[in-house]
Amino acid sequence: MNDIITLSIWQVALAYSFIVIVLFIVRRRGIRREKDILLASVRMTLQLILTGYVLNLLFGHPHPALTILVILLMEGFAIATVIRRQARKAPASLKKVIALAMVAGTLSCLLFFLFAVIRLRPWYDPRYFIPLAGMLIGNSMTGISLAVRQLQDMMDSQRPLVEQALML
User: Fold this and answer.
1) How many distinct structural domains can be found in the chain?
2) 75 and 46 belong to one structural domain
């Protein structure tokens, strides 16, 4: 269960062959995004290497404080991403609602799943805790982003009704 999968240089090259195919298609179509694709590929590679080392450390030395720290960092990045994705600047009160929705929603689902469904022992085992949190946080980011965008669009399109309701 704790075996580490080591990729050979040929397996890595095979994975990167898809990037070469995309570069070929982009160049052939005259899209002129080769530099962006190459830069994104380098960033992805560095992020995956760094993530591999961090996860290797976390999985090798499970500790509740480290697991909680990782989850808090993931939540923080997710909240910042949701706020950054909005077409226009969100007011401070909306940012607080976004943060509360993200943290309360993901943590309540995560804790229920870990304690009631799979009954993880120890509860902070990063091999399960971190991937499950990542899935929940990723899906929550999408849902909250769509909800905030819809709220802002409806506030714009229904402005007279909103102002009328506020006058009551």
Assistant:
1) 2
2) no
Instruction: For residue 2, name the pLDDT band (cuts at 50, 70, 90).
Output: low
Higher pLDDT, 131 or 88: 131
Cis preceding-peptide flag for 91 (omega within 30 of 0):
no
Are residues 30 and 91 located together in one domain of the fold?
A: no
Q: How far apart (Å, rounded) are the C-alpha atoms in residues 24 and 47? A: 24
Q: How far apart are CA 118 and CA 120, in angstroms?
A: 6
Name, in order, each residue with C-beta under 8 angstroms of 140's C-beta and a sequence gap of 6 or more. 78, 101, 102, 105, 106
pTM of the model: 0.75
Q: Which domain holds residue 52?
A: 1-61
144 CB burial (10 A radius; 0-12, 13-18, 19+)? buried
